[in-house]
Amino acid sequence: MPIREIPMYIDGQAVASQSQEWRDVVNPATQEVVARVPFCSAEEVDRAVASAKQAFKTWRKVPLGKRMRIMLKLQALIRDHTEELAALITEEHGKTLPDAEGEVGRGLEVVEHACSITSLQLGELAENAANEVDVYTLNQPLGVGAGITAFNFPIMLPCFMFPLAIATGNTFVLKPSEQDPSSTMRLVELAHEAGIPAGVLNVVHGGPDVANQIADHPDIKALSFIGSSHVGTLLYNRAAAAGKRMQSMMGAKNHCVVMPDANRSQAINNLLGSAFGAAGQRCMANSVVVLVGEARAWLEDIVEGARNMKVGPGTQRDADLGPLVSPAARDRVVRLIGAGEQEGATLALDGRGCQVAGYPDGNFVGPTVFADVTAEMTIYREEIFGPVLCVVSVDTLDEAIEFINANPNGNGTSIFTNSGWVARRFETDIDVGQVGINVPIPVPVAYFSFTGSRGSKLGDLGPNGKQAIQFWTQTKTVTARWFEPENVSSGINSTISLH
């Protein structure tokens, strides 16, 4: 199979980078090199930004109805190419094909939401706020926006960014993850096939140098980032110092509370899918289960359910989880499992040394379960980003809420219960941005905003929903009075009141 050379996308065309620095893109199930991606030069990044800046002059004036029709075409193209996009995700990321298809579907939801731009970007009007004075607001685009995405959702995360940014009249520069860029590039091709004009959506590739250049660039007005807490914090501070609007959606340590009155099989199946799907490489994975009261007796069933999950290559449709994205990711997970053992957690199920027939070189780690986990342990404090589930036992709901609220992160949490009172108490008192009630991964539908909080988020506004419209636009308030041609002035008004 020929090795793809990943291009940049500048001014409406795929452009070969002249960079001397390239990185191999590797199939994590086989270690086969499937593509090569450039680390773009500073000049190439400047070229992409300049293209977006020039295109903004005309794109911002394109009627809302035309932008809407482009988004309608894009959502149809994504739907028609779901299998192709999913196959590219699986080849470079490793997640199973059903999971990859689900990712495309969640990205598609955002594009479908962007199709409502004709009503989403409306301002407000107060007629006769004073004598024959009208006050109204305009929600106008900022200019050039940018996005930097993590590897774990190469279709969904770009969809969290550029569709709404472009639909609101901005132009865009995207830097996808260098670990699995092919599906993102195919998405960008489909966007141009849908009718996005040259220069409106551009793509560059690279590592920290390119990310820093984007954060510093004076012609980029807003930056959206999804990735690790370390990188997100650095970029947030850097972009804020450069005067940019910035949102950083970052790391997590999500908890799933299981009450003894919950439906036992439903709760266990849901928490296992959440913890081990995509090999745990989700910022919204429930990596900690808090068993309350008599539910602590369910540990054996949780372990048995995890033991029966099937590990395989992503192309194997009946597999529950595939490989980790890279050997480095696998080695880090293995190291953290060892740290859990050394620090006294009970290793109830060990996924190290997982072997998959026919794939001896895959980055596989099987489902791993630790019991007797405490807040001081490394496996609890760090985001493992792998198929490792930590089990904590407490006596009461109050203890569970206190334990979760003490964690510095606030991305997502969930509770399984059949009590409406317990669920309402939990949603009220828990200090986490996104809550699931009998839903293990509470990522909201795209017309609601992604609202992680505390250590999981920097910036007031998140992706998707109304907050995204606010993030990608600036409000201009107009106070207007029109005099009749024969109107005679009533004299000088030196006060601040409107007469």
UniProtKB/TrEMBL annotation:
<dbReference type="InterPro" id="IPR016163">
    <property type="entry name" value="Ald_DH_C"/>
</dbReference>
<protein>
    <recommendedName>
        <fullName>methylmalonate-semialdehyde dehydrogenase (CoA acylating)</fullName>
        <ecNumber>1.2.1.27</ecNumber>
    </recommendedName>
</protein>
<dbReference type="InterPro" id="IPR016162">
    <property type="entry name" value="Ald_DH_N"/>
</dbReference>
<keyword id="KW-0560">Oxidoreductase</keyword>
<dbReference type="InterPro" id="IPR016161">
    <property type="entry name" value="Ald_DH/histidinol_DH"/>
</dbReference>
<comment type="similarity">
    <text>Belongs to the aldehyde dehydrogenase family.</text>
</comment>
<keyword id="KW-0520">NAD</keyword>
<dbReference type="InterPro" id="IPR016160">
    <property type="entry name" value="Ald_DH_CS_CYS"/>
</dbReference>
<dbReference type="InterPro" id="IPR010061">
    <property type="entry name" value="MeMal-semiAld_DH"/>
</dbReference>
<dbReference type="GO" id="GO:0004491">
    <property type="term" value="F:methylmalonate-semialdehyde dehydrogenase (acylating, NAD) activity"/>
</dbReference>
<dbReference type="Pfam" id="PF00171">
    <property type="entry name" value="Aldedh"/>
</dbReference>
<feature type="domain" description="Aldehyde dehydrogenase">
    <location>
        <begin position="16"/>
        <end position="478"/>
    </location>
</feature>
<dbReference type="InterPro" id="IPR015590">
    <property type="entry name" value="Aldehyde_DH_dom"/>
</dbReference>
<dbReference type="GO" id="GO:0006574">
    <property type="term" value="P:L-valine catabolic process"/>
</dbReference>
<dbReference type="GO" id="GO:0006210">
    <property type="term" value="P:thymine catabolic process"/>
</dbReference>
